[in-house]
């Protein structure tokens, strides 16, 4: 009976879910309207709906409940009562490898194709391993935090005290199980850490700031890259900008919690020439964390696979070029522009570097796909380009 009720709840969520809304925003509202659901009910419902979307666009003709069974089998490594009730023969094989599971699914659904989970693999960046990337969608990413310098011992002690398993990735980066309720263990008011994905933290290796440099975080959003930059060199002069005034308010709060108080803030639409605001500025470094499809993060937001229109790749490519053209001219000769996306698409990555070099005259120093799919993290792209002297 419990498994049947869980299936009914899943189908209700799927029926009421508006396709243009992030699941992470929709589900809390659904739970508030259904107060009879206990914490276990909410946890199971969340697992089922997220796993369902992890199947991407595979087996599109199947009814939702059948697609859910396939997803539950592929996405879990330990048996659960739900799968045992509906698919006991699959539950008995839950420990199989992904390849073995796919082979077993094909005995029932011969038209299952891994390529259809994420059907744009031909658009992936050159360095992305297609098979590993596709299989990564069946695995929930881990939670990564960046511990503020000097607080590593305290944070580790608190995690050990709470019996939370974690892995030290170095440079203050800790890896924890997804869903860890850190707010119950490490109160935010103590300002001990930032939640930040492993790959995002690795972009700092490309910054190389020097003391008293003047840097511009051009598409700053909530300021994660600026905080990384500040952790490397607290004495930089920092300008941050974004087109969204509301998100810059979040940046203020985040900066103040991290002890960063000296910076300039500007609301700028960088698809337009910012000459009026920026005419007397020249920078030793520019971070362009460009708006993008976010395809490298869809392991955390798998609903995006079902919602994505591939025409958006061209939209983001043009947007990135427009912004880059208006940003790069404020870079001092001999200094670096750091181009970053959380995309796995070549058009937003290597092709963007081609534009930056051929159209804007920058010189590529280094570039890298940060292969988050190999370590339960986001997949990102970063390039360091120099303006010739």
From TrEMBL:
Gene Ontology BP, a term: methylation
Keyword annotations of the record: Methyltransferase, RNA-binding, S-adenosyl-L-methionine, Transferase
Active site: 342
Pfam family name, one: Methyltr_RsmB-F
InterPro entries membership: MeTrfase_RsmB-F_NOP2_cat, MeTrfase_RsmB-F_NOP2_dom, RCMT, SAM-dependent_MTases_sf
Tagged with keyword Nucleotidyltransferase: no
Listed GO MF terms: methyltransferase activity
Annotated positions binding S-adenosyl-L-methionine: 242, 269, 289
Protein name per Swiss-Prot or TrEMBL: RsmB/NOP family class I SAM-dependent RNA methyltransferase
Organism: Mucilaginibacter roseus
């Amino acid at each position: 009976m419990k498994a049947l009720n869980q299936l009914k709840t899943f189908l209700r969520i799927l029926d009421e879910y508006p396709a243009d809304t992030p699941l992470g925003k929709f589900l809390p509202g659904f739970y508030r309207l259904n107060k009879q659901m206990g914490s276990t009910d909410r946890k199971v419902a969340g697992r089922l709906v997220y796993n369902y979307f992890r199947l991407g666009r595979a087996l599109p003709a199947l009814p939702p409940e059948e697609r859910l069974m396939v997803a539950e089998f592929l996405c879990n490594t330990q048996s659960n009562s739900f799968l045992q009730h509906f698919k006991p023969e699959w539950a008995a094989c839950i420990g199989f490898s992904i390849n073995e599971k796919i082979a077993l699914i094909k005995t029932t659904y011969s038209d299952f194709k891994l390529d259809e989970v994420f059907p744009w693999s031909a658009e992936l960046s050159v360095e992305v391993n297609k098979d590993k990337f596709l299989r990564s969608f069946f695995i929930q990413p881990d939670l990564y935090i960046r511990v503020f310098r000097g607080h590593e011992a305290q944070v580790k002690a608190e995690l050990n005290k709470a019996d939370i398993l974690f892995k030290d990735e170095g440079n203050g980066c800790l890896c924890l199980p997804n869903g860890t309720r850190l707010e119950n263990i490490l109160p935010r008011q103590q300002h001990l850490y930032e939640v930040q994905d492993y790959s995002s933290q690795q972009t700092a290796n490309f910054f190389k700031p020097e003391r008293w440099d003047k840097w511009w975080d051009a598409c700053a959003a909530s300021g994660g890259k600026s905080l990384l930059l500040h952790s490397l060199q607290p004495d930089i002069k920092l300008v941050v900008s974004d087109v969204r005034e509301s998100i810059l308010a979040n940046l203020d709060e985040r900066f103040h919690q991290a002890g960063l108080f000296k910076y300039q803030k500007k609301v700028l639409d960088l698809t337009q020439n910012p000459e009026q605001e920026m005419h007397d500025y020249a920078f030793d470094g520019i971070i362009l964390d460009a708006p993008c499809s976010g395809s490298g993060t869809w392991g955390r937001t798998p609903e995006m696979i079902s919602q994505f229109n591939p025409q958006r790749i061209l939209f983001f490519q043009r947007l990135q070029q427009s912004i880059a053209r208006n940003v790069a001219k404020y870079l001092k000769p001999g200094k670096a522009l750091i181009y970053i996306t959380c995309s796995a698409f070549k058009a937003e990555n290597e092709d963007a570097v081609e534009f930056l070099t051929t159209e804007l005259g920058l010189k590529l120093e280094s570039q890298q796909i940060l292969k988050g799919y190999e370590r339960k993290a986001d997949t990102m792209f970063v390039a360091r380009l120099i303006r010739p002297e």
